[in-house]
Amino acid sequence: MYRLDCKNKFLGIFEIMESVAYILVLTMALAVLFFAIAFREPPRIEK
Predict the structure, then answer these.
(1) How far apart are CA 1 and CA 19, in angstroms?
(2) Integer distance in angstroms from the first to the last C-alpha of the chain?
(3) In angstroms, rounded to a whole number, what is the distance separating the alpha carbons of residues 45 and 16?
(4) What is the Cα–Cα distance from 16 to 9, expressed in whole angstroms?
(5) In sequence order, what DSSP letters do the residues of 1-47 get, joined into one string?
(6) Ramachandran angles phi, psi of 23, nearest 5°
(7) How far apart are CA 15 and CA 43, in angstroms?
(8) In 3D, which of 17, 46, 36 has the Cα closest to residue 2?
(9) Residue 40 and residue 27: Cα distance in Å, rounded?
(10) pLDDT tens for residues 2-46?
(11) pTM of the predicted model over 0.70
């Protein structure tokens, strides 16, 4: 992991793209879980 210190104000483009990639992957995983739960088929009630 990267240590952020106060002297280094500018992050490199690689660190920015890496963090954006991690955030995108986590957001897509959460969205898939949400839609899988929200739009699942209702259970069949047999009488």
Answers:
(1) 11
(2) 57
(3) 50
(4) 13
(5) -PPP-SS--PPPHHHHHHHHHHHHHHHHHHHHHHHHHHTPPPPP---
(6) -65, -40
(7) 46
(8) 17
(9) 20
(10) 555 555 556 678 888 999 999 999 999 999 999 999 999 888 888
(11) no
Q: Which residues of 8-40 are buried (b: 16+ CB within 10 A; e: fewer)?
A: eeeeeeeeeeeeeeeeeeeeeeeeeeeeeeeee
What's the rounded Cα separation, in Å, for the pair 22 and 15?
11
Single-letter code of the amino acid located at 2: Y
- What would the two tokens of residue 8 be? 């280094």
Read off the tokens for 41.
Answer: 């088929």
